[in-house]
Specification:
The complex is a heterodimer of chains A (81) and B (513). Chain A is α+β, with helices and mostly antiparallel strands and 81 residues long. Chain A has a single domain (4-77), classed as Glutaredoxin (3-Layer(aba) Sandwich), CATH 3.40.30.10. Chain A is 28% helix and 22% strand. Chain A has helices at residues 12-16, 19-27, 69-77; strands at residues 4-9, 37-42, 57-59, 62-64. In chain A, strands 2-1-3-4 form a four-stranded mixed sheet, covered by helices on one side. In chain A, strand 3 (57-59) and strand 4 form a beta hairpin. The longest helix of chain A has 9 residues, at 19-27. Chain A is globular, with a radius of gyration of 12 Å. Chain B has 513 residues and is α/β, with parallel strands linked by helices. Chain B has three domains: 9-119 and 185-231, no CATH class; 124-180, Alpha-Beta Plaits; 239-509, Fe-only Hydrogenase (Larger Subunit), Chain L, domain 3 (3-Layer(aba) Sandwich). Chain B contains 21 helices and 15 strands. Chain B has helices spanning 9-12, 19-36, 47-51, 63-78, 138-142, 167-171, 183-187, 213-217, 229-236, 260-269, 278-297, 314-323, 325-328, 337-348, 362-366, 370-373, 382-392, 410-413, 420-433, 447-458, 488-500, and strands at 110-112, 124-127, 148-150, 155-157, 177-180, 193-195, 201-203, 223-225, 242-246, 274-277, 308-309, 353-358, 378-381, 441-445, 468-472. Chain B has a four-stranded parallel sheet with strand order 10-9-12-13, sandwiched between helices. In chain B, strand 14, helix 20 (447-458) and strand 15 form a beta-alpha-beta unit. Chain B is globular. Classes of the chains: A alpha+beta (81), B alpha/beta (513). At the A-B interface, helix 1 and helix 2 of A face helix 2 and helix 17 of B.
Chain lengths: 81, 513
């Protein structure tokens, strides 16, 4: 099983664009329970162009910009073995 | 059915980031940036195009309507009245007077943006396509007014005849009949929202207490509140020192990584001269109310009141005065924690201009009271502060941790969570009386429950008769306020942790009489 590190940006811009809510949503999703996923709130990833590309989530080091809750869930599902 | 708890209208969209929140915040940020970057008044006309920049609609049937709504929101962000519906014209007409450091806000605070209102059904019963047109058809049998008939494919409810008793919905074996209610009206605890002749939501300002819960409950974002961010930015640029008093629910509002002292550091970076905890004012109030309660308990008073009602939530106080005037005389006449904290600031610096930062929209309305207006200049929500941080490019999560603020007691900081006010007053009263005694009390959150509580008190339905009554307009207390950013469960935890870090437990341990 490959570990998946999910860093959710909780800097100012991403927080105001729903970063906290994204974190809550995936942490409480029954599909992502268990040891495979690490959900980590992180400071500004410095790639959002002052919020224009917020919210940002980084999955195993790859940044996903302007990510919607729906797209985040479907992306994470592709990592489930 | 999976075993999920039923959510109240307030809880359905809380903790979820929706496009409605996104647009609200974008407008605030655009307006704040316009002022901070020093654009001329005419720039306001470009804001709708900056936010709705696509050629095809995202949320509604056309980009023109989307922009029309954003235009109205931009007006509200300046503190301007909405343009009368149907009265077309540029938005910049009267924007210049709003670009000032003087108080500009006028009533009403909470406004229906008719361009955005989808004219939801008000309180009616509807047959959905779950209906099987069953042989038993209990719906038409139980209807007391012959409003339900069985049509060709399904049951039909004659809306003219229907008296909205709900018996058909109760009896349907397929749960095919639903109660439709407009979310704004459902959220309103004082029945201030009805429909106008065209079906648009309409607020009765005789009843409205500006709690703002309709704003966060409308799934189309068709209700908005006026903001003072423009005037606050101009004030920050002025000569006089500007102080900010921060409501106890501020903890954790800017994300899990932002400690309370980082929020304070960020406030100072955008130009505030000093920061005071509103929880200090809560301590002052706890002492006043505890003394009143102690006198009532020991019957040492000529006070004709039958109980002490809490006075910290302006929406609750106003709703009680309007709906239960006989009960409202029991509410303490002490000013709110916001006012007491402002007094402390004015004592520190008589020249100070004061901004209240909190989760609350009713505070904007409270500031029209002359005594309050003398002390508090402006009110800003956490959401509005977020826009200011963005406009000033100050990120609280990147601040260095400074020395912690320490203006208040543990119980004062816990005012932000429903039940916290009563807990504080009870603990302090027992301290004053010098003994552990049982003081009967009751509390409610959300205005609908508060009004029910007052009705029950009036009809002597609460036993033993409470001596202390706490009312909070927002669900779960101030942490559920319409101007909050943080999901409820996170906010609750953070407020609890922060209050435990207070240096003293009770107000009497750090305040003089």
């Amino acid at each position: 099983m490959r570990k998946v590190s999910v860093e959710v940006c909780c800097g100012l811009h991403c927080s105001l664009k729903g970063g906290q809510e994204l974190l809550d949503l995936i942490e409480s999703n029954p599909l992502f329970q268990g040891d495979q996923f690490d959900f980590i709130p992180v400071n500004c990833l410095q790639c959002c162009d002052d919020g224009a590309l917020s919210p940002v989530v980084s999955i195993n080091g790859e940044n996903y910009m302007k990510i919607t809750p729906e797209r985040l869930v479907s992306t994470l599902r592709t990592f489930i073995n | 059915m999976p075993d999920l708890p039923k959510l109240s209208i307030f809880e359905k969209m809380r903790g979820i980031f929706t496009p409605v929140k996104n647009v609200r915040r974008q407008v605030l940020t655009e307006v704040a940036r316009m002022i901070v970057e020093g654009h001329p008044p005419s720039y306001i006309e470009t804001i709708p195009y900056n936010i709705i920049s696509k050629d095809t609609p995202t949320y509604r049937e056309s980009v023109f309507r989307e922009r029309a709504i954003v235009r109205e929101r931009a007006r509200l962000a300046f503190g301007l009245d909405l343009k009368e519906f149907g009265a077309h014209g540029p938005i910049i007409d009267d924007v210049t007077p709003a670009m000032t450091d003087k108080k500009f806000l006028s009533r009403p605070i909470v406004n229906v943006i008719k361009a955005g209102c989808e004219r939801c059904e008000t309180d009616s019963f509807w047959v959905t396509n779950n209906c099987r047109k069953c042989m038993a058809h209990p719906c038409s049998i139980v209807c007391p007014v012959e409003a339900v008939t069985i049509g060709e494919k399904a049951a039909i409810i004659d809306q003219e005849k229907c008296i909205r008793c709900g018996r058909c919905a109760q009896a349907c074996p397929y749960n095919a009949i639903v109660h439709r209610e407009r979310p704004c009206a459902q959220a309103c605890g004082v029945n201030a929202i009805s429909s106008d002749e065209n079906g648009f939501a309409e607020i009765d300002y005789e009843k409205c207490v500006s709690c703002g819960l309709c704003i966060v409950s409308c799934p189309f974002g068709a209700i908005g509140e006026k903001s003072e961010i423009v005037q606050i930015i101009y004030t920050l640029r002025g000569e006089k020192p500007v102080y900010v008093e921060i409501a106890p629910s501020f903890v954790g509002q800017f994300g899990p990584l932002v400690k309370p002292s980082m929020i304070i550091a960020a406030l100072k970076q955008i130009g505030f001269a000093g920061v005071v905890e509103v929880a200090y004012g809560a301590d002052v109030d706890t002492l006043i109310l505890s003394r009143e309660l102690a006198d009532l308990v020991s019957k040492k008073t000529k006070d004709k009141r039958r109980y002490i009602g809490t006075s910290c939530c302006p929406a609750w106080v106003l709703a009680a005065i309007t709906n239960f005037p006989k009960q409202a005389i029991n509410i303490s006449e002490s000013f709110t924690p916001m006012v007491e904290a402002a007094r402390k600031i004015k004592k520190m610096d008589p020249e100070a201009r004061v901004v209240f930062l909190g989760p609350c929209i009713a505070k904007k309305n409270e500031c029209f009271t002359p005594e309050v207006a003398e002390l508090v200049d402006f009110v800003m929500t956490f959401e509005e502060l977020g826009a200011l941080f963005q406009a000033f490019s100050i990120d609280p999560s990147e601040m260095n941790v400074e020395e912690e603020i320490s203006d208040a007691s543990e119980v004062g900081r816990a005012y932000a969570v429903a039940g916290g006010v009563a807990d504080a007053i009870l603990a302090q009263t027992k301290e004053i009386l010098g003994k552990e005694i049982d003081i009967p009390f009751t509390s409610a959150d959300t205005l609908a429950d508060c009004m029910m509580m007052l009705k029950n008190i009036q009809n002597s339905k609460i036993s033993p008769r409470p001596l202390l009554v706490e009312g909070m307009a927002c669900p779960y207390g101030c942490i559920g306020g319409p101007g909050t950013l943080s999901p409820l469960h996170r906010a609750k935890r953070k407020v609890e942790t922060f209050s435990k870090r207070a240096k003293v437990k009770l107000p009497s341990q750090h305040l003089k009489e």
